[in-house]
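Notes continue from the previous slide.

Worked example: a multi-chain complex. Inputs as given:
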Amino acid sequence: MKKVLVMVVVLTIGLTVLAGYLFRALLAPLLALLFDWGILLAGVAGLIGIGYLIHMNLSKLARREKGAFFSVVVIIAFVFTLVSGLVMTPQSPFFRDLILNVQIPVEASLLGILAVTLVYTSLRLVRSRGWTPMSIAFLASAILSLILNLVFINIPTDTPLSYLMMFIRRLPLIGVRGILLGMALGGLVVGLRVLLMIDRPYGE
Amino acid sequence: MTWSFIGWVIIGLSAGLLFGLSFLIKDFDIYQIRWPAMISRLIASRASAIEQGKKRQVVLGHQLWSHTYPGLGLHTLSVLPDFLDPESVVDGGQSVSGGDGSLVVFARQMITGRYRDGFSLALQDASLESKLYGPTPLSFTAGFLPELGMDPQGSLALFGDYGPEAALWVEAARTRHGRVFAAAGSIDSQASLFMTVPDLLIGEEVYMLPGLLSPTSKNRAGWLTEDFVRIILILMIVFGAILKMVGVL
Amino acid sequence: MILNDVVWGVVGLLLTIMILSYLIGDNVFFRLAAHLFVGLTAGYMAVLIIRQILVPYLIQPLINGGWVERLWMIGPLALVILLLLSQLPRFTSLGRIPLAYLAGLTAAVVIGGAVFGTLIPQSRAIVEAFDPAVWQADPGQKWFRVLDAVVMLIGTVGVLSYFHFGRKLIPRGGQDAIKKPYPFEVLAGIGQVFIGIALGAVFAGVFSTALLALIDRILFINQIILRLMGAG
């Protein structure tokens, strides 16, 4: 019985939303309702996910696992931010300062570490991939793009050189377009597999 | 004939073919695909990690759905069951994590389902709950890097939709002697990992999984459908360009 | 310099140095800053979800809505309750229905997005590039536009061929097990060059962004230290 109900839910919701691409105006109010419910469910799932994070840290603390001290930091930071955000509004100056003055330094610094990591991992390219047409194209394109990104080159407009430059700048778009088309093909089949119940991410 | 009509024809053809090959033909196994050697290495590295009692990390990405890569979130969930076989889940070394609430809730449902079917819920190892190390890509990274540094890592398998920050996870796992396999999600992550991960599935290749891990007839049906639609798409683009050039379209 | 700025400046400085210390290896300072960030982000996301999703989509209609609106809320309320209950080990199976809802919705959006958001617009852009009217629009650029369209077509078909899953129908040796059928193999040779070019350019973009972030952090450290010393 439960299996049938699950099947009915997947098919009804999936086919209705798909039909919405065809009869947009007609189904607009119903689609808005379905999406609102979906947003609500995704939000609750988000909260449950955060619950897992806190539960994981509380368990570490209870079991006195290695690094349990850091779990205390996570829990204190979480509770402090949650209470501040609920008592004040997210727009209040203190709350905004709290978020931005932690978020920006940490995120920018993580990106900074990424820059350094990318530099020294790039030295492994040839060793890990060998000299293939793809790795040569990658290396040439990366170096050329870095030069074009970081160095200002003044080329007069409407000259053969400017057209060549435009052509070179557009070359990466071809690969990107092909990759996106391929990913869309994969997405189409994956979506159909869920609607046809070949894949059942909600459980057997 | 409008472009929208062509879109519906593509959807209809794909659905019909997938349905026919999956449900109407029994034991559809004639379609053979190329077998990347990296899959054998992934399987071997996981087996060796189990033997050595090392950690095996599976990352499901940061999003269930995104506009640029719509299918990656669902795809990652179709790969997960292949990592939940009894050998993998029984020793407590397996870890499943994601950066999105919906993804980890789905993953938890699958994990408990496996335990309910295979063993008993009472036997479920607490370490095999799906984990969310942080709710945004960089907070996930901040939570995941210390975790990777904690124990010796056997393997790190990356699936789904994630960004260039994955290069940091890879380096952290490497430092702890972990072997990395990545089915790269976004183009940013493909570019960042191209340099450093030899076992890397790029672009649409990621959709060869989960069939490569369990080549069932339904997975073969998916491969054939995708290849068939690819040929239709290529022909459509080529003939469309010719017709446009001669002024018919 | 206002006290508030000083305090937050010092917090930012400390966090920056603690995170950057990861460059010399995983250490206690990095872990402290990373865990603080995780807790804060989790709290912030929880606040956003409560204030921007739960309140307007569930609580507000239930409290302030008319009876028809409240009646409509039975559906989502039931789904939410089932999802929450499914987190208890005994009721896990109840989660199937709300998750089936999410899966069905996501699958349909994925199909629509893939076909009408990517396949059709991207294919159309390639075909439109072969419009003679576009070529003639600027006579000075005619041959450039023709070349651009032809390379775009060959490159895209090449990339799509590179991803072809099927292998040679009649493999004759070990290597043939990883090779595509002949026409795809030839086109894939062209395609892999375009994939390399695309990934190289994207890599340069990612690296430039990360490098700018690193430079920004170095300038920030410099600026705060100068300020604290009274020179800024």
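Summary box: The CA atoms of residues 131 and 202 of chain C lie 29 Å apart. Chain C touches chain A through 116 residues (CB under 8 Å).
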